[in-house]
Design goal:
Layout lengths: L6 H17 L5 H8 L5 H13 L3 E2 L8 E2 L1 H11 L8 H10 L6 H16 L2 E5 L8 E8 L4 E8 L3 E8 L6 H15 L4 H17 L3 H14 L8 E4 L10 H16 L1 H8 L8 E4 L11 E9 L4 E10 L4 H20 L1
Antiparallel strand pairs: 1-2, 3-7, 3-10, 4-5, 5-6, 8-9, 9-10
Function: Negative regulator of class I heat shock genes (grpE-dnaK-dnaJ and groELS operons). Prevents heat-shock induction of these operons.
Pfam families: HrcA
Keywords: Repressor, Stress response, Transcription, Transcription regulation
Length: about 350
């Protein structure tokens, strides 16, 4: 809790964490005293460091007389002592605005977001991929082929076009297909594909019970046009190699375990999807997510959407000693800009 630390102890902890983030080395009492700018004796600083260690904020590596922050120390630092930068520098903002162009497709925007997160923060950038059923239907068109085959043209989210061939229960004329498409577009355009599918299923059952042949035929077309095997969730990650930069020999084994987790995807996907309902930035430090997924690494996430619904989560994976004051606003701004591009 914030009230458990005096101003002096808070200053020392904040200074020690900042030094460790900058240098990656254990911090000794003499260095800490000089950098903190406090008019106190060396003994006072040593006693304060011992107290912080007893509270679980610091620990002493056996190879050094200095101390480094624990995950609990980083958590207290992030929650109570961190001064986050208000915004991005102009060059980073301009690059994001250029790359997250509303005219690009959703898949291109997701790829660009993960790349930009990695490039700007020098960490690994990760973005979950929206499921097609989460995105809105804009328009459907039917073109007759031979026999009972119909070409379906789906326009999704204003910019993405999908073509698929379906087999119908009977042969439809050009006029019937145009009328069916017009009715579907009038009733369902702008709704998420998953919501349209559910509504069509309900209405199709009701139409069959009422023996409404025309409505049944139209809804059957819609059902077949929208039917698609649900793809498992996925994410894009860029910049994994950056995690090797500055890694100590002790961290290499943790890195191998982390990469194994990233390769299997399911554990990290579960963690990312749990962040989809978060209001803004969410931070996991070390193993506080409830498992050993992250180990000596942190995950900073924020949800993104299209203005009507949440479509996914983006974030940054990096060592616990990452520059939180710089990474947090990058994640926040990127999520906002991606959402704005998808909502345009």
């Amino acid at each position: 809790m914030a009230h458990e630390l005096t101003d002096r102890a808070g200053t020392l902890l904040r200074t020690l964490v900042a030094l460790h983030i900058r240098d990656g080395s254990p911090v000794g009492s003499q260095t800490l005293r000089q950098e903190a700018g406090l008019s106190v004796s060396p003994a006072t600083v040593r006693n304060a460091m011992s107290d912080l260690e007893e509270r679980g904020f610091l620990h002493s590596p056996h190879t050094s007389a200095g101390r480094v922050p624990t995950a609990q120390g980083y958590r207290f630092f992030v929650d109570s002592l961190l001064q986050v930068k208000d915004d991005l520098n102009s060059s980073a903002f301009d690059v994001l605005r250029q790359e997250l162009n509303p005219d690009r497709t959703t898949s291109d925007l997701v790829q660009a977001a993960s790349s930009m997160l990695s490039s700007i923060t020098s960490q690994a950038g990760v973005v979950t991929v929206p499921r097609p059923t989460q995105q809105p239907l804009r328009q459907v068109e039917f073109l007759p082929l031979s026999g009972d085959r119909v070409l379906v043209i789906l326009v999704i989210n204003q910019r993405e076009v999908q073509n698929r061939i379906i087999h119908t229960r009977r042969v439809f004329s050009d006029e019937e297909l145009r009328a069916a498409a017009a009715q579907i577009n009038e009733r369902f355009a702008g709704q998420a594909l998953a919501d349209v599918q559910q509504q069509v299923d309900r209405e199709l059952l009701a139409a069959k019970n009422n023996i409404d042949d025309y409505l049944s035929a139209t809804l059957d077309l819609a059902q077949r046009a929208l039917a698609e095997e649900e793809k498992p969730s996925d994410y894009l990650i860029v910049g994994e190699s950056r995690l090797f930069e500055g890694a100590s020999p002790e961290q290499l084994q943790r890195l191998r375990e982390l990469f194994a987790t990233l390769e299997s995807k399911q554990d990290l996907l579960h963690l990312l999807e749990s962040c989809s309902e978060a209001d803004g930035v969410k931070i996991f430090i070390g193993e506080e997510a409830g498992s050993q997924i992250l180990g000596d690494y942190s995950l900073i996430t924020a949800p993104y959407g299209d203005g009507a619904r949440t479509l996914g989560v983006l974030g940054v994976i990096g060592p616990t000693r990452m520059a939180y004051d710089r990474v947090i606003p990058v994640v926040d701004v990127t999520s906002r800009m991606l959402s704005a591009a998808l909502a345009s």
